[in-house]
């Protein structure tokens, strides 16, 4: 027995040293001290609101916090809600037009800087400045610019003899959505410009010089050499743009609040109205809208990710 105890003690000692060495390699106390606060904020500000929204979507939230289970009635009501479908249409138009225009304009501006146009340092700062301005300031500023009586747009049209083209840009349904999309393009083109400019400067100079030695024209060099080489950057900007435009809220809310006549209503503004502005006292229906839109965005992100992954597999 004594021999057994003597033989076992070194093994126990070695096991203790191994555990201690493992704890030294992985200081779980320090790791937890950094992870727990971040996880707590993530759970409190992201996970819980999402789960609570899913729960509310099958409830009817009555006054004084009372709840009534209604199943999928809120989701069924969405089918016959014309404002909801109008919001989807406006958001889809925004998410299709704005990213393409953002990236195209950003690429053009980046090419101008890449070609070393005069005053390029000034233009780089001037074109990027709108990105640094908050949506609140941008919305108020462009509301003044679009003003019918003293806005710069209508005054400029009058000055060049095109007074018949004056419009209430935010007050007429056929122009309001386009006016907001233009403002969004103006704000984010500078961001795409900086990213595209970085991609252009990372191109191998040997390829560009070889195309010039082959007497490749400027447009041919652009479409057959430059754009294919920065395609991944352009695709990433388009994906980020689509995802961002699907959530557009603040610009619309400050400038038009979805009007006139729902012409600029988006899914996000409609959810906010149904939840906090309309006197329905029911958070169940807007929660159902938010849940459906969350599912649409999640499906879109997964589809784009799978499509890009398949393309990469085919290329490599």
Brief summary of the model shown:
By secondary structure, the chain is mainly α.
In terms of topology, how is this protein built?
Blueprint: H1 2-25, H2 28-56, E1 59-61, E2 67-69, H3 73-79, H4 82-114, H5 120-132, H6 135-145, H7 152-159, H8 173-201, H9 205-213, H10 218-229, H11 231-245, H12 250-255, H13 267-277, H14 284-315
Antiparallel strand pairs: 1-2
Helix pairs in contact: 2-14, 3-14, 4-8, 4-11, 4-13, 5-8, 13-14
Commentary on this structure:
The structure is a single chain. The protein is mostly helical and 316 residues long. It folds into two domains: 2-56, no CATH class; 74-315, MetI-like fold. Helix content is 76%, strand content 2%. The chain contains 14 helices and two strands. A two-stranded antiparallel sheet has the order 1-2. A hairpin with a 5-residue loop joins β1 (59-61) and β2. α3 (73-79) crosses α14 (284-315) and α4 runs antiparallel to α11. Mean pLDDT is 86; it is low at 1-6.
Shape type: globular
Give the name of the CATH superfamily of the largest domain. Answer: MetI-like
The top-level CATH class of the largest domain is Mainly Alpha
Strand order of the largest sheet: 1-2
Determine the oligomeric state from the structure. single chain
Number of domains: 2
Give the low-pLDDT segments: 1-6
Mean pLDDT, all residues: 86
Instruction: Give the CATH architecture of the largest domain.
Output: Orthogonal Bundle
Helix content: over 70%
By DSSP, the count of extended strands is 2
* CATH topological fold name of the largest domain: MetI-like fold
Proportion of beta-strand residues = under 5%
Strand and helix order: HHEEHHHHHHHHHHHH
First and last CA, distance: 65 Å
Main β-sheet: number of strands, strand sense, barrel status?
A: 2 strands, antiparallel
Total helices: the number is 14
Radius of gyration (CA) equals 28 Å
Give the helix/strand class. mainly alpha
């Amino acid at each position: 027995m004594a021999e057994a105890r003597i033989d076992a003690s070194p093994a126990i000692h070695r096991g203790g040293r191994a555990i201690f060495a493992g704890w030294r390699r992985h200081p779980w106390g320090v790791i937890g001290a950094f992870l727990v606060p971040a996880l707590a904020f993530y759970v409190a500000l992201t996970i819980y609101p999402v789960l609570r929204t899913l729960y509310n979507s099958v409830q009817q939230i009555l006054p004084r916090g009372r709840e009534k289970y209604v199943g999928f009635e809120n989701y069924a009501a969405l089918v016959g809600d014309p404002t909801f479908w109008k919001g989807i249409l406006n958001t889809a138009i925004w998410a299709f037009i704005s990213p393409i225009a953002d990236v195209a304009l950003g690429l053009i501006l980046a090419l101008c800087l890449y070609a070393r146009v005069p005053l390029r340092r000034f233009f780089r700062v001037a074109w990027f400045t709108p990105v640094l301005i908050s949506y609140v300031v941008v919305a108020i500023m462009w509301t003044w610019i679009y003003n019918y009586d003293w806005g710069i747009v209508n005054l400029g049209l009058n000055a060049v003899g095109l007074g018949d083209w004056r419009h209430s840009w935010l007050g007429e349904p056929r122009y309001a959505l386009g006016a907001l999309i233009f403002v969004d393009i103006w704000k984010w083109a500078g961001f795409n410009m900086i990213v595209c400019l970085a991609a252009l400067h990372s191109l191998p100079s040997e390829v560009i010089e070889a195309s010039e030695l082959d007497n490749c024209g400027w447009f041919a060099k652009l479409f057959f050499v430059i754009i294919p080489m920065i395609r991944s950057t352009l695709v990433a900007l388009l994906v980020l743009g689509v995802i961002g435009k699907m959530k557009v809220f603040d610009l619309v809310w400050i400038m038009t609040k979805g009007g006139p006549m729902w012409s600029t209503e988006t899914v996000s503004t409609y959810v906010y109205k149904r939840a906090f502005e309309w006197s329905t006292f029911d958070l169940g229906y807007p929660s159902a809208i938010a849940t459906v839109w969350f599912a649409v965005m999640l499906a879109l992100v997964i589809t784009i990710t799978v499509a890009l992954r398949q393309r990469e597999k085919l290329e490599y």
